[in-house]
Structure formats: C-alpha cells, structure tokens
Write a structure and sequence with these properties.
Strand content: under 5%
CATH class of the largest domain: Mainly Alpha
Order of helices and strands: HHHHHHHHHHHH
CATH topology of the largest domain: Growth Hormone, Chain: A
Number of domains: 2
CATH superfamily of the largest domain: MFS general substrate transporter like domains
Mean pLDDT: 86
Number of strands: 0
Radius of gyration: 25 Å
Oligomer: single chain
Helix content: over 70%
Number of helices: 12
C-alpha cells in the first residue's frame, strides 16, 4: 500500500502516465494546497450546518443516554425492559437512514429537488420532526405506551443526520470536507458532554415527571433552533474557497460557456420558429 502511484516501486512508466493523465488536475493538486482556515472558520454556511447538527445530536444523545433512566424512574421498568427499549429503535433507524439517503439521491438526480432542498428535507427530519416527537414524549406523562411510541419515533428520525448535516458539509467543500466534519464532530462531542450534565442537574434526587419534561423540552428547543437556522440560512452550494484560484477561474469559464451555449440554442430555436411562421 502506497500513498500515490509515483511512490509505487513496480509501476510501469506507461501505467503511471495513464493514471496521471486520467486524474483531474484538481485531485492531483489537492495535496499541495494550503488549507484556507480563515475562509473555513468564517463560512456562514458551515456554521449554519453545525448549528443544525448541534440540535440534531442534542436530541440523539438525550434519547440515547437517558431513555433507560427515564423509563426506570418514571415508569418503574426494570433494567432488562429499559435496555430493550433503548436498543431496539436502532434497527429501524438504520433502515430509515438507508431509505432516506436513497430517496434524497433519487430526488436530486431526477431533478425533482435541488441539492439544497434535499438537504433541508433530511435536516427537517432529524431536527424539526425529532423535536415534535420529543415534545410528545415530554407530554406523555404516566402513559407508557405513548412514551415508548414517541421515544421510538424520535430515535428513528435521527437517521436523517447522514443525508442531512453530514452530507451538507461534503456538499459545501468536497476538498476540505474532512476538516468540516472534524469541526462538526467536535460540536457533537461537546453536546455529548453538556447534555448529561444538564440532565443530572435537573433530575438528581428529583426524579419527577415535571423535571423530565423540562429535560425533553430543553432538547426539543435545541433541535428547533437548529431547524429554524438551517431553513432560513442553510445552503448546499459548493463554496468558492473549496477551489484553488486556477480551479475557480476554470469553473467560471465553464459556467460562462454553458450560458453562451444556452443563449445560442435559444436564438436558434427562435429563428426556427420565425421561419415556420413565414412558411405559413
């Protein structure tokens, strides 16, 4: 295993030339480029996506870590029952995540939705819809059946995170997506640390329906903030700092050529229509 074709000791010159000639210049140059830290750290689309991810993961971690404790103290279930309740939704979450990802790809490739529209739909699932189910859980009171239903559904819709916030960071900058995902992962880890602390502060020696309702409403509030922020300011458009100056100039040239071609096609179609009218 070698880092590049040039480093392979047994590659032939013909094979090396073929690989290099078939590799886009942007890929070949990507390893030599400086990371545009200032552009990344001041990118509004990136921070908007991270806010949405913060909200989605707050709900995810709350339901993941606190469900057994909630069902044990509020509904009086034993550890075996709560363990099953906590683990079972992840099978459905996996299925939902795959199906939603496939559907998002199909909607985008078929032209039925824009890339930004697809990402907003997926993020709606893991923030707005999850918030609604979490509010339902907070209001379920002593009704165990409703609590299980809302908890299950809240877990399942977090399957929108891969097709939503995670994919959106790759859309913003394919060349630097690993850095964006790393920053986003840091925010998720912060949530994973803060959320249990808040739950502990609210419920230690005070295991009441009212306190747990507050726990779930705080989680839902974070989700709704992420949902609203991304719906208003979110985008999946590739950012200019993803390209080097040469690549950006090339993209602009290609875009202008496409516009020129479309203009020529419209002129040709208009000329054909006028010719048909004269023939009549």
């Amino acid at each position: 295993m070698f880092d590049s074709p040039q480093q392979h000791p047994r590659i032939s010159k013909e094979e090396l030339d073929y690989i290099l000639s078939s590799t886009p210049a942007s890929m070949a140059a990507s390893t030599k480029r400086a990371i545009p830290w200032r552009s990344i750290l001041t990118s509004r689309p990136m921070w908007v996506t991270i806010v949405a991810h913060w909200g989605a993961t707050w709900g995810f971690y709350t339901l993941l870590a606190q469900s057994p404790t909630y069902f044990r103290f509020i509904h009086g279930w034993d550890l075996n029952s709560t363990g099953l309740i906590a683990g079972a939704p992840y099978i459905l979450l996996m299925i939902f995540s795959y199906l939603l990802g496939w559907w998002c790809d199909w909607l985008q490739k078929s032209g039925k939705m824009t890339r930004t529209g697809v990402r907003k739909m997926a993020i709606t699932m893991c923030t707005g819809v999850q918030a609604a189910f979490t509010v339902g859980l907070s209001l379920s009171g002593c009704q165990s059946g409703l609590a299980v239903f809302f908890m299950f559904m809240g877990r399942i819709v977090t399957g929108g995170i891969p097709a939503g916030t995670s994919a959106n960071l790759v859309d913003l900058s394919p060349n630097f997506s690993s850095i964006l995902l790393g920053i986003c992962g840091l925010s998720a880890n912060i949530v994973g640390a803060i959320s249990p602390l808040i739950v502990g502060a609210l419920t230690n020696d005070n295991q009441t329906i009212g306190q747990w309702r507050l726990v779930f409403l705080i989680a839902a509030s974070n989700m709704m903030i992420g949902f609203i922020v991304f719906m208003v300011w979110g985008t999946a458009d590739e950012q200019s700092w993803n390209f080097s100056p040469d690549e950006q100039q090339h993209e602009e040239t290609v875009h202008l050529n496409e516009q020129d071609n479309q203009s020529i096609e419209r002129i040709d179609e208009k000329g054909k229509m006028e010719t048909r009218q004269l023939e009549c």
